[in-house]
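User: Let's play a game. I give you a shape written as tokens, and you guess the letters that built it. Ready? Here's round one.
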């Protein structure tokens, strides 16, 4: 397999659409290795509130970029792009097929298209923005970002304070939208030709799966996991605990929400997230969209056939 034009498969789509199942099927069929593209799965000790592959699934194919750093460790889209590109080269060098699967659109874009030459960090500005989060909540920053850079706000969850702070930092310091800077001076991924497979299930069926997944998170230890993480970090919990599921579990533990309310809020949050994911992925170029879930036999077979033709096997 030549590294000059090595094939790369990218599986994208909303949460709960079956990206993991499809990545495993393709990896087993074409001697592939899977590169996770998920901004929460890179953290260790976060299990119940994520969609990480199980240990059984990880035994079926090699996986990369899971459980990389501690929950309180800083990790950026640039860090992801660097490690993901390194993994792609190494997988290809072994004669295997790299398969990127996940729902973090910003991480995927950083890997494929490179990052913009943004301004240097301003700790003073970041401190002010963090103070705003404590005073008014991360949703306030999200509303502010939507006025300064609507496309960027559509790609970042309202609870993701670190990404919101960085996006606002760029907009304010550069005096222009971050998405405009994305188009300047980036270094796209080279040496690979990319097949993008997109999953687009029927909306009502997707929401049913999202609701079921959220209930299972709470049944399978999300509250207990959150309690342990809060106890470990004390008064300075890591920002990742603001991600979907963990935030609602923390509100349950503090008495702000009942269990039923926490589950309902998690379900609603994930449904909203799925909408934003599809808005983002619709802008990805040359996506082969599949109208269904990955565990649908016809969808999976069509994906297998497309990959077979793409790699010439």
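Assistant: Ready! My guess for every position:
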């Amino acid at each position: 397999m030549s590294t000059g034009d090595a094939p790369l498969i990218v599986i994208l789509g909303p949460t709960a659409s079956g990206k993991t199942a499809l990545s495993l099927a393709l990896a087993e069929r074409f001697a592939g290795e899977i590169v996770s593209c998920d901004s929460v799965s890179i953290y260790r000790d976060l299990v119940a509130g994520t969609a990480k592959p199980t240990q059984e699934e990880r035994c079926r194919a090699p996986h990369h970029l899971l459980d990389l750093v501690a929950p309180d460790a800083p990790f950026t889209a640039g860090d992801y792009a660097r490690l993901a590109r390194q993994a792609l080269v190494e997988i290809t060098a072994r004669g295997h097929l790299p398969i990127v699967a996940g729902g973090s659109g910003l991480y995927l874009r950083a890997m494929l298209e490179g990052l913009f030459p943004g301004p240097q960090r301003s700790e003073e500005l970041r401190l002010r923005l963090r103070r705003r989060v404590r005073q008014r909540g991360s949703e306030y920053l999200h509303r502010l970002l939507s006025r300064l850079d609507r496309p960027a706000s559509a790609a970042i969850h309202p609870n993701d304070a670190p990404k919101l702070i960085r996006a606002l930092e760029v907009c304010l310091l550069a005096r222009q939208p971050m998405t405009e800077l994305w188009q300047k001076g980036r270094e796209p991924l080279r040496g690979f030709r990319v097949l993008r497979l997109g999953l687009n299930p029927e909306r009502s069926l997707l929401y049913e799966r999202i609701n079921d997944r959220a209930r299972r998170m709470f049944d399978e230890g999300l509250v207990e996991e959150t309690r342990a993480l809060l106890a470990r970090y004390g008064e300075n919990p890591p920002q990742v605990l603001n991600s979907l599921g963990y935030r609602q579990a923390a509100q349950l533990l503090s008495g702000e929400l009942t269990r039923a309310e926490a589950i309902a809020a998690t379900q609603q949050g994930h449904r909203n997230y799925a909408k934003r994911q599809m808005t983002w992925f619709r802008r990805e170029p040359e996506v082969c969209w599949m109208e269904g879930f990955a565990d649908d036999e016809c969808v999976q077979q069509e994906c297998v056939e497309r990959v077979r033709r793409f790699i010439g096997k």
